[in-house]
Amino acid sequence: xxxxxxxxxxxxxGGKPRIWYGGDYNPDQWPEEVxxxxxxxxxxxxxxxxxxxIFSWARIEPREGVYDFDWLDRIIGKxxxxxxxxxxxxxxxxxxxxxTEKHPEILWQDYRGDVCHPGARxxxxxxxxxxxxxxxxxxxxxxxxxxxxxxxxxxxxxxxxGCHNRFDYSDxxxxxxxxWCKARYGTIEAVNEAWGTAFWAQHMNDFDEIVAPKFxxxxxxxxxxxxxxxxxxxxxxxxxxxxxxxxxxxxxDPDRPQTxxxxxxxxxxxxxxxxxxxxVDFVSNDHYFTPGEAxxxxxAYSASLVDGIxxxxxxxxxxxxxxxxxxxxxxxxxxxxxxxxDSLAHLAMGxxxxxxxxxxxxxxxxxxxHAAMVPHAGADSHVFRDVCELGADLDKLADEGxxxxxxxxxxxAVVFDYESQWATEHTATPTQQVRHWTEPLDWFRxxxxxxxxxxxxxxxxxxxxxxxxxxxxxxxLSEETTRRVRDYVAQGGKLFVTYYTGLSxxxxxxxxxxxxxxxxxxxxxxxEEHAPMGSDFPGAMDHLDLSNGAVAHDxxxxxxxxxxxxxxxxxxxxxxxxxxxxxxAIVANRYGEGSxxxxxxxxxxxxxxxxxPAMLEANGIAVDDRTNGGAVLRVERVDEEMGTRFVFLFNxxxxxxxxxxxxEPMVASLAAVxxxxxxxxxxxxxxxxxxxx
Length: 693
Prior knowledge:
By secondary structure, the chain is an alpha/beta fold. The protein has 17 helices and 26 strands. One of its GO terms (biological process) is galactose metabolic process.
């Protein structure tokens, strides 16, 4: 696969590159007398970038073929004259009511065949030729109107593809799925082989016999190979729609960069965003914090994954929240300091733009309780004061040269794979308590507990260029990934592998001969059976203790043999009836010029953190002593050519942390530097940013 050439939104004429700062702006929800006040407050806050017209199709084209661009012209002009650049949306995210009334066949259907009726958003099917014609016409009209507008610096194509319409089971989708399968496999015989249709008499004689994985009855199990391909198809068909929109825009306006907002988070695995990353001019992401103790860590993990998807090119945080959202059962607010800290954490991880949903909090509609840069309380509020503080911080960091830096490469890569997550979602697996996505996050957090800030790297990415690599529950190991793993370790790489890794190939066919089938000689263990654990039946084994003090839950591997080159780092301690007492739990091995550590159970963040010192030592990885024993998350952005280094120190605890000051303090949010400048105290939710040259 070849990536598109990286293109970044350029500053307005006469301006200099800045960290883009702003958010979604919906002036069409407000009377025009509010617009001037908005722009004055934007200037006060340091806003220099807003996204416009994301859900404005019905305002721009109120009736078929009747267009009203005057209001949009006026607000773009006002913003541009105030020095605020526009990221202009295509307005195609949600069709207007007149379109769905005229063409109800554009509405997507769920797996039972029920139609998604209009009344919310994104109620269109990606495979509808009718909807595509209307959307591309809107793209063409927008591009022709604004291709020469000096205040538009980027195209915001649609919005959050697949947020609501990831799966569509209409006849259009079924027809498209057949075409996708033919393009992928060539022959129906190859599809039968890939899906294992010899089982349950599912053999097909022709592509016309391929049906979408619709409702098959409660308690039944869909063909896993077919379901995995359906998830691939559903991601691809939305990507095809994005590319069709881009092609139309580019035919009229070839020079402006284009993007669309991903939804990358630890659990945000609906689309293969790494594959999408090949087709955008620059990567953009929407991220909303996880409430509670995982808040900072999950944010940093997700931002690192976005940086991996962007291959360490600058990326844009298109949306996050100043405080509470509106779509959770309980919508927790941001704690004091988190508005600034969260933004700086994304910045530390490689973002060159920080934006929110949205500028002004709505007074009506489904998102009226979603926080914004200007809240219901108005400018006289702690939220808006924090927004202004952040704007000043970003301005200073831009002046100091942050835009010339990128996220420093870690020594350790934690690998993430969308397809492994999709495969583990099947309803017929060893345990429904295990999914791929949780293990990479646990490793990221446990490594941070041990002073290591890892990079999160997609499986297609250059993880084999790192000193050490973690394969955390990477259920699918294709032949190509298997080759990369074997070559990496043989040539001196240091590998950590966990349970549920390397169980199947890319077709979800099990690697035979004992787990982890394709790399068991690399890690020096052979596993005959999984031992799921739970408490749903009285007397069932619900945990296993390890000799190093860790506790395993949910699943353990029955390791029946270890290689002569291996040594056991920890064993299970259990009653004899379990068959696990004294059995290997964590095993180190030598393979070629490299080394491996295999973790044969789900230990969780705490168990991994406790086990990591011995595992890191076995793989020759030293820990960083500048993190207060993992209480501080330390992130660097560097300009290797100039030697400039920005160090971000985030307090991961609810206790003040004393840290050494590395260089000249740039930003101190809930942090204070001592009089002699050698040390600083970072309060809970605080961050200190320093610069060395």
